[in-house]
Amino acid sequence: MSGEGAVGREVPGAEPRRYGHGVLAAFAAGILRAAGVPPDHASVTAERLVEADLRGRTGHGLIRIPLYVRRIEAGSVNLRPRVSVVSEGPTSALVDGDNGLGQVVMTTAASIAIDKAEAMGMAWVGTVNSNHAGAAGIYPAMAARRGLVSIYMAVGNANSMPPWGGNEKLLSTNPIAIAVPAGDDPPFQLDIATTVASHGTIKVAAQAGEQMPVGWVIDADGEPITDPGRAHDGFLMPIGGYKGAGLNIAIGLLAGVLNGAAFGRSVVDQNAELASPTNTGQAMFVMRPGLFRPDGSGAAVAEHLAELRHSGSNRAGPLRLPGDEAGRLEVENLANGIAVPPALVEELNATARRLKTGQLLA
Amino acid sequence: MSGEGAVGREVPGAEPRRYGHGVLAAFAAGILRAAGVPPDHASVTAERLVEADLRGRTGHGLIRIPLYVRRIEAGSVNLRPRVSVVSEGPTSALVDGDNGLGQVVMTTAASIAIDKAEAMGMAWVGTVNSNHAGAAGIYPAMAARRGLVSIYMAVGNANSMPPWGGNEKLLSTNPIAIAVPAGDDPPFQLDIATTVASHGTIKVAAQAGEQMPVGWVIDADGEPITDPGRAHDGFLMPIGGYKGAGLNIAIGLLAGVLNGAAFGRSVVDQNAELASPTNTGQAMFVMRPGLFRPDGSGAAVAEHLAELRHSGSNRAGPLRLPGDEAGRLEVENLANGIAVPPALVEELNATARRLKTGQLLA
Predict the structure, then answer these.
(1) C-alpha separations of A27 from A15, A40, A47, A351 in Å
(2) CA separation (Å) from A316 to A83, B126, B167?
(3) A202: closest CA of chain B, how far (Å)
(4) How does the average pLDDT of chain B come out, rounded?
(5) What are the structural domains of chain A?
(6) Nearest-CA residue of chain B relative to A281?
(7) Whether residue B11 has pLDDT greater than 50
(8) A207 CA: distance to closest CA in chain B (Å)
(9) B5 or B18, which is more confident?
(10) Facing residues of B338 across strands?
(11) Each residue of A213-271: pLDDT tens digit?
């Protein structure tokens, strides 16, 4: 779909070019280092961002780098954070991110949750004073690689939706991601915002010069907004009306308020308030799937997913379940490189030039 | 909304009559005992059913009794189950319901989860060989009364939706309920099916002689079905399209497959297959909310909920958040009695007469 807003941004003949995963990660880390991020934190952050691009979650990949750099330059991110566990039990921890980059904080939190779950059966780890940590699904993917079930929830970084029936934007896209291992098969991996569209998806549409479908954003009179440049003037719509709006609040309480992180009026719009720390909250629950059935559940999960994929009639191929397309893209992108739209290449190169990294995407 | 199907069922001048909570619970327990349920199990089941009615979840209240009796009479429910923990860790348990009534099995599972969470900080308890356990929200309500956070998930008892893009009904309404204590204020309590409408909601519409709104059920051609009597011919719609359909599968894996309970083709339609045990699965996660912030989170949750309720402008009163209406109804119904529609009174009395309980609703 190419809308009216696209014309001015189209570069004739410009096809997305493909870059190796390692090339992009090194390039991204170079930009972050040039912005002052220590090498280890730059590598972790770049790796998490490229993981999102690898899996097709391009709204939470390299497209975020220019914003991260602007926030770093505005002084709102702590480049030398002391990421530490401030309260701990056998199966729980609260990680204070000390306002470090979100990927650094959440990678630490996810690792702690995974280690505790392996030792104790399950664990819940929350974060406080964190920042935007990228695609929700990348943290459950870490647990799934270790054969663990997990649920990740986060408070989004800009309020864009009122509570159901209201008209003040106090809720964000609050995503939930769930991974369930499926034995020798790829895991089931759900990664959804509780709004119909996420900020990332809207960014991707804006950069591609596309219009948004009706149903993503409405204005104060309930009329659809389809220009992504005007998305911020309207309200995002929750999935399933009051149901998704309620689930969104539940996530805000569990990932934000339980940890002392921002929710409601205390949420900082990371795009508009560049100089303000966000106090983002996240939560990750991890569990060994073999706690219940003595023989484990991997094979049974795999069988049930296959049953769903091959169900019904009159179709060309298997149905796509959550995570299937991301998994397929990951394999394809690892083999052939990740396609990066020309407008994003240009924007990233402009950032790299300005920061004098000495590295550009060809 | 009163649709065309209502005319034949309307009883002129018949207003719902109100009955005390204790009267209804005793009446329901009497029917169950007359059907052969031991007194303790009859009491627990009746209490859980009336709790649903008290909170306005009438689709999972007394309206279910005639079906339960039919299933008992068809021999598909074990009236003398040995409900037992078949695998256990410090923070986990699998409860084998031995095909007992779902409320009995889930009340046991919820109690174990609550006790373990109080002792260990958190716990996840699953069920296998359970049955329909009523309104999802009544189990988190048990945990909330003890000041605990909880998440309940269940595999529904009739497949009514295909996986996204498919046309074979392999998914049920798979509900999720979440409660978060709010200090001295009533807790936040979400209780949603992951379909736009639940079987219970459709039952209520059918008994009231009402039509269903467009968007609840579609036929194989994607056209809306609005006659609740024809709901079974169509597909329920998931909340948020592929997102809700994915969340529905996640719940099926976590509440069903992890426990060795039914999911997909192994789900038994409890209405159509009266003589078949359902092997229903449920899961309940319970956690102490004070694991993270040293001062606990109750007051902060209460403040944030108040902020949401009183947000925005131009409204007559506070916004209703998930659980607010249920909480209001509970207070009102405890004080004034529970309104039971005449058609349901008649159906319950017919069941009571047939079983010769000696008790009828006036």
Answers:
(1) 20, 14, 11, 11
(2) 50, 37, 13
(3) 17
(4) 93
(5) 4-296+328-354 (3.30.1370.60)
(6) B292
(7) no
(8) 24
(9) B18
(10) B19
(11) 988 999 988 899 999 999 988 999 999 999 999 999 999 999 999 999 999 999 999 99
Rounded CA-CA distance A129/A81 in Å is 10
Reported ipTM: 0.94
A220 lies within 8 A of chain B by CB: no
Residues of A numbered 116-145 whose beta carbons fall under 8 angstroms of chain B's beta carbons: which are they? Answer: 120-122, 124, 126, 128
Residue pair A263/A250 in contact by the 8 Å Cβ criterion: no
Q: Which residues of A touch B165 (CB under 8 A)?
A: 315, 319-320
Q: What is the per-residue pLDDT for A293? A: 93
**Of B252, B291, B322, Cβ closest to residue A246:** B322
Distances (CA, A) of B100 to A242, A332, B104: 34, 49, 7
- Chain B residues with CB under 8 Å of A258 CB are 149, 180, 289, 292-293, 297, 301
Q: Which residues of A touch B307 (CB under 8 A)?
A: 170, 264-265
Chain A residues within an 8 Å CB radius of B258: 149, 180, 289, 292-293, 297, 301
Over residues B109-120, the mean pLDDT reads 98
3-state secondary structure of B304: helix
List Cβ neighbours of A296 (8 Å cut-off, separation of 6 or more): A183, A289, A290
* Cβ contact A239–B240 (<8 Å): yes
Return residues 43-72 of B near A (CB < 8 Å).
none
Q: What do you get for the CA distance between the two ends of chain A, in Å?
A: 27
Q: Which of A121, A257, A304 sits opposite B300 (nearest CB)?
A: A257
> What is the rounded CA–CA span in Å between residue B49 and residue B191?
15
A183 reaches B (C-beta below 8 A): no
Q: Which one-letter DSSP state was computed for residue A163?
A: S
> How far is residue A308's CA from residue A304's CA, in Å, rounded to a whole number?
6
Q: pLDDT (tens digit, 9 = 90+) per residue, B220-276? A: 888 999 999 999 889 999 999 999 999 999 999 999 999 999 999 999 999 999 999
A84 touches chain B (CB under 8 A): no
The whole-angstrom separation of Cα A106 and Cα A109 is 5
Tell me: the pLDDT tens digits for B148-205?
Answer: 999 999 999 999 999 999 999 999 999 999 999 999 999 999 999 999 988 888 888 8
B312 and A CB contact within 8 Å: yes
pLDDT tens-digit readout, A27-74: 999 999 999 999 999 999 999 999 999 999 999 999 999 999 999 999
